[in-house]
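Summary for the funding panel

The consortium committed to producing paired sequence-structure records for every protein in the target list. Below we show the first two records in order, beginning with the earlier of the two.
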Amino acid sequence: MSLPYQHVLDLADPRRAALEIAEWYLDHLDDRVSIREGWKFDREWDFPKARQLAADTSAPARVIRDVTVALVYSSIVECRPDLRDHLVLMSLAWHALEAVGADPRVTFGVVASASSGECARAFQDFTARPTSKRAIGAFGWRAIETETGLEFDRI
C-alpha cells in the first residue's frame, strides 16, 4: 500500500525530500502520526543545519523556511532522544528568526500546533521563557557575524 506522501519518500535529493516532508507534515494533519511512526523511512534526509539557519540574512523567506523545516524535524521525532538538543535548536532558531525581523512566536506556534504531547509543550514552554532563558548564550552558543549573515558556534 502506498502512502499519501510516497512521492516525497521517493525523491532522490535528501534536501528536497526534507523540505517537502516538512511541508507535508504541516499541511496534512491526518498523516502526522504515520510520519512519526514510520520515521526515517529507511532513507537519507538532509534537514537544515542549526549552525547555518541565519547564514544568509538577506533572504528572510529562506531563513524562515529553513528554521521551520528544522523545527518540524524536532516535531517529527517528538523532541527525542534528548530534549536538551532540541532546546538548543529552538534557541538558535529563535535567534535566526529575530535576525531577519520575523516573529519567532508565529513559527513556533505553527510547529507546536503540529506537534504531539511533550514536544508540543516544549515549544510552548520555550516561547513562554523570559528572553534571557531563550538566548543562545544561555545554551553555550554564540552568533558570529559573516559577510552574508550569522553562523552559530559553541562558546
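The next record, for a separate protein in the list, is shown here:
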Amino acid sequence: MRRVTAVLLAAALGLTLAGTAGGPATADDPAVPRLHREGRHLVDQYGRIVVVHGLNLVWKRAPYAPPDTAAGFTTADADWLARYGFNGTRLGVLWAGVTPNAPGVADPAYFQKWDRVVDLLADRGIWMQFDQHQDMWNETYGGEGVPAWAAKRPFPFSLLPWIPLPFPEGYWTPEVSTVFDNFWAN
C-alpha cells in the first residue's frame, strides 16, 4: 500500500510540476484572459470575478512617462511585479505628455515611452488600465495633467498671483472650479 501511495504522490507531483514548467504568460496566451465588465465586476472569459492586485504607475512631472532607468520603470521592475503576484497596473497618461506644445499635435516620443512599458507588462501577463490622469488641473495650481497651452488662468483671477495650496485643497477654490467649468463648457 505504501508503494502505491508513493507512486501516486510522485505522479501527482510530476504532473503538477509539468503543468507549471512553461515560461511566463504572454498577452496572447489564453491563460491571460481579456477582462470585461459584467455589472459592477471585472470578469474573465468564464464569467469569474477577477480581483486585480496592482500598482499605480503615474509620472507626474515632465516628460510624464517613465524613463528606462532605476528612477523610472525597467525590465527588472516588471519582473519583480510578476514574481510577487501583481497582475494589474494603472498607467497614468497625461494630456500634457500627449500634446505638450499645441492642440492636436501629438508627441510620438511620448507614446513610444509608454509602448516600452506596455510591452514589458504585457509580456508578463500583467493587465493595464489607462488613466487620463490629472490632479488640480495643471502645474499652475500645484498639480499636473493639462498642458500649459490649455491652462491659461481665467480673468479676473489672472489679475492676482495664485496662492499655492496643498493637494487637494486647490480643487475647492473659485479659480480651479472656473478652469474646470470653462473646459467642460467649451
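Regarding this second record: Residues 23-133 form a domain with the TIM Barrel fold (CATH 3.20.20.80). Confidence is low (pLDDT under 50) at residues 1-27.
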